[in-house]
């Protein structure tokens, strides 16, 4: 169950995770992930988007030991930062603040960004905020919803103009296949969480996967109240994700040796 080869067969992140010149041709119609009646034609500007940081040899070999760092409040006072920064490849979700280095680390290799984030920033302030992520690849769902396209391109051009990170776009067909895969396994969420998407990617592309900051509950193991995120207490939209069910899957994967689920001070529990 959930073998690397199974993920490759279903979804093939190594080839189809992002839009590239290898999997997309000029003039091709791209259907939106969540609305198959809506589409966009691949024009010159899309065609020149290359996943620069995923060139040889990185993309065609395993990424080594990967940490997928969730944003759960369980990370506060965990002292996990040093462990996180020691792995080969650090994957983070939704542009989290990194001002708590002792608990969350500072290394970032890949980070997702929700296109709505740009509503809160001018170009200059957005670029300033992004400096903390160094040379990480920024992954955005430009073609998941029609409303995502324009802000995703705005992020791409802003970071290009300020000589910051490379922005690359999820291939909507990859996300659709991944969603269908998990539905076939009984995970009937309206939409996979960013965490589940990135854990799935890591399971296919990394030789070893360790999860930090995944904890969908409002209290810790000893019953102490904790924030939803380590930086705020804003919960997810009701009815969209199935965080608790996803967490149960992570625990099952841990028990089968597919990944390590780290919880608690210096991530002691479960490994």
UniProtKB/TrEMBL annotation:
It is a single-pass type II membrane protein. InterPro entries: Glyco_trans_29, Glycosyltr_29_Sialyltrsf, GT29-like_sf, Sialyl_trans. One of its GO terms (biological process) is N-glycan processing. GO terms for cellular component: Golgi membrane. It is found in: Golgi apparatus membrane. One of its GO terms (molecular function) is alpha-N-acetylneuraminate alpha-2,8-sialyltransferase activity. Keywords: Disulfide bond, Glycoprotein, Glycosyltransferase, Golgi apparatus, Membrane, Signal-anchor, Transferase, Transmembrane, Transmembrane helix. Pfam families: Glyco_transf_29. Disulfide bonds join 66-206. Its main location: Golgi. PANTHER family: ALPHA-2,8-SIALYLTRANSFERASE (PTHR11987), ALPHA-2,8-SIALYLTRANSFERASE 8F (PTHR11987:SF29). Belongs to the glycosyltransferase 29 family. This is ST8 alpha-N-acetyl-neuraminide alpha-2,8-sialyltransferase 7.1. It comes from Erpetoichthys calabaricus.
